[in-house]
C-alpha cells in the first residue's frame, strides 16, 4: 500500500494530528490540507459512511461528494469493519467517494474520521508519511512557528538516492523563508537530537533547530550515528546543542546552513561531505571537520574553540573560505603521509587564528603543491604555515581585510566578512585569487575569501544571509543604516538624498505611509528613517530599500511579528486569556478575573480553631478573627471569641512563674 509521490503533507501549530493532513497535488480538487480545521468530520452518527462489503467505494451520509474533494486525504479512525488509516479520494459522486484502495474488511457502517486539515506536530506528520508506504519525492511541509518536541524526529520511508523532503515555509509552500521566518524545531529541555533520519536520501530545508534548555538537546541533525547517507540539508540553522550542530553520514551536501554556539563541532560528519556557503561560529570544538574526505566552498568558520577546518584523515578541497579568530588553527591538514596531489587549498583567508593559519603535524616529502595557492594570511598567532612555506601566489595581508572592524566582536558578531578596499588590507585580496585557465576569456580574477566585491574585477559569489530583525506589529521603529558610494562600494556616501520605499510581505516596493520619504543623515554616511505604526502593520517580511544615483542600493530586511504572541502559532491570544476553567459560561475566563473574584467574595468565619496543617485560607481567616474580635486573658487562660463576642473559637493556657511567661498553643 502506498500513496502517490505527488502527495504532500502539511503541519501547522494550530492543526490536529487526527486530520487528513495531505493532498495529491496532481489531482484536480481543492487542497484542504493547508487549513487548520478539517473540511469534513465524520462523527459516526449524523455524518458517517458505509460500504456494501469489502471495497474502496464508501457511501456518504450527511455530506455531499463534490469535485473539490478529489485528491484530499481522509483519515479513517473507526467504524464497523473499517480499517483505520489514511486514504486518498480518487473519485466522487454526490453520494459516494472512491478511495485509492479497499478500506473495509466487510460491510462497513458508522465510519468516523476527518478529511482535510493539517497536522499539529511534525512527528505525527512524518509518521503518517512513512506509515502510508511513502515513496520518493513526497514533501512534508512545516509552517512557520515553534514546535517543541519530546522525542527525536525520525523521518523515514525515503528511497536511497531519491529524496523525500521535510521543508519549512513561512506563508506558502516553497516560499523559502530566511532568518527568523523559518519554522523552529526545539528540543525544549530534552537531551535528544532534533532530527535523526530513519532512512537514506532525505532533504531537510528551511528549518531552525534549537537545542536550548536544561538539559540541552544533543545534536541538531544526527545522521552519522545511524549511518544514514545521501542527505541534502539547505538553509537550515542548528544552535545551542550540547554536541554537534550537524553530524552527518556519508555522501551528504550542506548548503547555506549555519551552526552556532554548539558544545561540539558546528558541522561535522563521517565522510564524503560537501559544504557550500555555510557559516559555523562560536562552537566549542571545530567549525568544520570530517573523518575522511570533504569539500568546503565559500564557507566561513569563525570564533570556534578548536580549528576552523579540521581533517581527521584526508582533506580534499577548501576553496574561497574564511577561517577567522578560531582558538586553534585556521586549517588543520592530515598527517603528511596521507596528503595527495588531489588536495586543494585555493583562495582562502586565514586570519587571527590562535595558532597557525594552516597547520600540519609533520614535514611532507614534497616542498611545493600545485593545489595550494592564492591563499591570504593575516595575523595568525603562531604564523602562517606550520611545516610548510608560502607559495609565490600566496598573500601576506598586513592590515584588516574586512569591512567589519571585528566581524566576531560578540557571539555571532555582525558577520561582515566583505572585503574593504584599503591597501594594505582588503585590496590585497581583491582580484588576486586563482581564476580561469590561461587562454579563456575572463574579466579580472576571483577575490580571495568567501565574499566577492561587485565591480568587474570580482566574481559573483553570494553573501551569507543574516537573520532578519523582528519588529512587533504596528509599532514605531527608527531604522539606521550605512550608505556607500557605488564607485568603489566602500567610501561613505555623505550628503545624499536617499529615497525610501517599503515592501510588505512580498508586495511591490512603495512609499511609506507618509508618502515620498527621504532618509535623514546622522553623519559620515550613516542615515536613519522612522517607520510608523502603519508601515509595520502587516505580518511577515518587511523589506526597506534606500536608493539614489551614485550610491549602492540599501536593503534592510525585517520580520514583523504579532505583538502579543511573537508570531509563535501556539500562542493565539494574549497571555492573560490562556488560563481558563472548564466550567460553564458564567465561569471566569481569565486569570485577572479569577483573582479579583476570589478577593471580592464574602467568606464565612471559622467554626473552630484550624489544625497545624490547615489551608492557607483557613490560616488567614484565623489571623483576621484573632485580631478583629473579642479576646479575654486571665491568669491561666487566653480565650479568642467568634464575631458574636460570646462563643469561644480557641483557647490557650498561660502561666508566669516570675521568670518566664509561657503561652501554650491555641486550640
Describe the 3D structure:
This protein has 667 residues and is mainly beta. Among the domains are: 7-115, no CATH class; 265-467; 469-561, Immunoglobulin-like, CATH 2.60.40; 616-663, no CATH class. Strands 1, 2, 10, 12, 14, 16, 17, 19, 21, 24, 27, 30 and 33 form a 13-stranded mixed β-sheet that branches. An eleven-stranded parallel β-sheet has the order 11-13-15-18-20-22-25-28-31-34-36, with no helix packed on it. Residues 437-443, 456-465 and 578-588 have low confidence and may be disordered.
Topology, element by element:
Layout: E1 7-11, E2 22-24, E3 40-43, E4 48-50, E5 57-61, E6 73-82, E7 85-92, E8 96-99, E9 104-115, H1 122-131, E10 139-143, E11 146-148, E12 165-169, E13 184-186, E14 203-205, E15 208-210, E16 221-222, E17 232-234, E18 237-239, E19 246-255, E20 258-260, E21 267-276, E22 279-281, E23 288-290, E24 294-297, E25 300-302, E26 309-311, E27 317-319, E28 322-324, E29 331-332, E30 344-346, E31 349-351, E32 356-359, E33 372-373, E34 376-378, E35 383-386, E36 395-396, E37 469-472, E38 477-482, E39 499-504, E40 517-518, E41 520-523, E42 526-531, E43 540-547, E44 554-561, H2 591-600, H3 616-628, E45 631-633, E46 637-641, E47 648-656, E48 661-663
Parallel strand pairs: 1-10, 10-12, 11-13, 12-14, 13-15, 14-17, 15-18, 16-19, 17-19, 18-20, 19-21, 20-22, 21-24, 22-25, 23-26, 24-27, 25-28, 26-29, 27-30, 28-31, 29-32, 30-33, 31-34, 32-35, 34-36, 37-44
Antiparallel strand pairs: 1-2, 3-9, 4-5, 5-8, 6-7, 6-9, 7-8, 38-42, 39-40, 39-43, 41-42, 43-44, 45-46, 46-47, 47-48
